Amino acid sequence: MGYRVVDTASIEPEPDRPCECRKLTGPAGLEELAMNRFRADPGEQVPLAYHYHETQEEAFYVLSGTLAVETPERTFEVDAGGLFAVDPGSPQRAHNPADADGAVELLAIGAPPASGDAVAYDPTTDADADDDAGGDE
Questions:
Q1: Which of these, 52, 45, 37, 56, lies nearest to 17 by C-alpha position?
Q2: What is the residue extent of each domain of the chain?
Q3: pLDDT tens for residues 43-53?
Q4: Phi-psi category of 56—alpha, beta or left, where left has phi over 0 and alpha has psi -120 to 50?
Q5: What is the rounded average pLDDT of the residues 17-45?
Q6: How far is CA 85 from CA 44, 78, 108, 136, in A?
């Protein structure tokens, strides 16, 4: 058996991110899932780019504020206490809108931990390709 208590405030934010990102996976000793804590001020996005994962499921649990998640179909708003789940192959871009009243804080959990599994998605070109393919996805 193994147990760990992690002081998340002691984990340094990742450099070169569009918002504050504290990677919790390593310090927690997790191997079967990835976990990150994000804090995004108004106008900041959470991931590095609009993307999808080939094999990873993702879940965003909003701790405070309201998270906006853009998808090809619509933009979802997820309030504090809400959970947004994403299936593999489903493009999304999580962000805090520029006109938000304050920061949004969330936990992002993904399984399996899929390093290098993210695929960039361009809603202007990839959406046209989906339409040409019959839009079954």
A1: 45
A2: 37-77+107-137
A3: 999 988 899 99
A4: beta
A5: 96
A6: 20, 11, 10, 20
Nearest to 60 by CA among 90, 102, 30: 90
Calpha distance 89→137 (Å, rounded): 9
What tokens does 100 get?
A: 């938000």
Closest CA to 96 of 83, 110, 106: 106
pTM of the model: 0.87
- Residue reference for tokens 């002081």: 7
Please give the full DSSP string across 33-101, using - where no structure is assigned.
Answer: -EEEEEEE-TT-BSSSSSEEESS-EEEEEEEESEEEEE-SS-EEEEETT-EEEE-TT--BEEE--TT-S
Please report which helix (H) or strand (E) contains residue 119, including its range: strand 118-120
Rounded CA-CA distance 59/102 in Å is 22
- Residue 133 is predicted with a pLDDT of 36
pLDDT range class, residue 132, cuts 50, 70, 90: very low
Beta bridge partners of 77: 68
